[in-house]
Amino acid sequence: MPEPMRPGNAAAMAALNARLAARGLDLVEPGPIEDEPMPTEPGHPEYHRQHRAELALARWATATPPRYQHADATHPDVITWAADVAADPGNARSLLITGTTGTGKTHQAYGALRRIAASGPQNFQMIAITTADMYGDLRPTGSAGAAEHRLRQLCEIPLLLLDDLGSAKASEWTEEVTYRLINHRYNHCLPTVFTSNLPPRAERDDQGRPREPDLIAALGERIVSRLAEMTTLVPMTGVDRRRTKAA
Ligand SMILES: Nc1ncnc2c1ncn2[C@@H]1O[C@H](COP(=O)(O)OP(=O)(O)O)[C@@H](O)[C@H]1O
Ligand SMILES: [Mg+2]
Q1: Domain covering 53-246 in this structure, CATH number
Q2: What is the 3-state secondary structure (H, E, C) of 74-104?
Q3: pLDDT digits over 200-244, tens only?
């Protein structure tokens, strides 16, 4: 009687091999079982990346107003910036998107954040706020503690979109909180997208006065030189898309 085959029974395997070899047959040794997970299975890096992307995109959708729910970045420099942040947020620059009303600045900004979410980052947390709303949150009208808490949130959030910089009424106080925010994010290498209707620095006339409104006039030199250092400037051109839509 041939010995029954049991897993791990080396003697039985050897006997069987010998009998097969005698007949000129070769039994192929069973190799290790292919048990690496597939990209669609837990344990595979791609499975976990996709899972993170789903969570991040849900957060992005919650933080994004209905008008920009379908926004995608199309400007090449904005696409490059989003890819840089997705690859290494600690080493990415910030972004300053400028241009007149309706050129698509806010659309590009939300689109960039959406691309970062879709890449499935380890940690996706964002706040998107207009500068005017931010000043509204930070005015110490109620408890000063609440305003400080909000400023801390805005300073520390891994990704911030600050929309329409320089369009709210300026004062010493707005300059101070804006500087504190920008300086903190700069020091901690936290990527920020700024949009503004104003160019950072307009041409000056003979008396040194700006020929058109600019960010220096709205925010002060100290903030603009910080911005110049930390951001990639993306000027948007073209017509007012809101008017084209309405026509
Ligand atoms: N690339 C685009 N594709 C489709 N719609 C766009 C695009 N860019 C902007 N829009 C739409 O045009 C309008 C103006 O864009 P928006 O980003 O709000 O301009 P801005 O912030 O420069 O004033 C919005 O309704 C926006 O949804
Ligand atoms: Mg806008």
Answers
A1: 3.40.50.300
A2: CCHHHHHHHHHHHHCHHHCCEEEEECCCCCC
A3: 999 999 998 889 999 999 999 999 999 999 999 999 998 888 877
Please give the number of the atom of ligand 1 that sits closest to the Cα of 109: 17
What are the residue ranges in the chain where pLDDT is below 70? 1-8, 27-33, 142, 144, 245-247
Q: Where are the domains of the chain?
A: 53-246
Mutate to test the pocket of ligand 1, among 68, 107, 129, 167 (most ligand atoms within 8 A of CB): 107
| 65/67 Cα distance (integer angstroms) | 6
Distant-in-sequence, close-in-space partners of 209: CB < 8 Å, separation ≥ 6: none
Q: How far is the CA of 207 from the centre of ligand 2 (A)?
A: 32
Q: What is the pTM of this model?
A: 0.85
- Minimum-distance ligand to the CA of 97? 1
Q: Which two tokens stand for residue 34?
A: 């292919």
Ligand 1 pocket, CB under 6 A: 67, 74, 99, 101-107, 241-242
* Ligand 1 atom at minimal distance to the Cα of residue 100: 22
Nearest to 90 by CA among 185, 223, 224: 185
User: 3-class SS at 36?
Assistant: coil
By most ligand atoms within 8 Å of CB, the mutation choice from 115, 163, 241, 243 for ligand 1 is 241
Whole-angstrom CA distances from 27 to 14, 15, 20, 31, 43 are 10, 11, 7, 12, 33
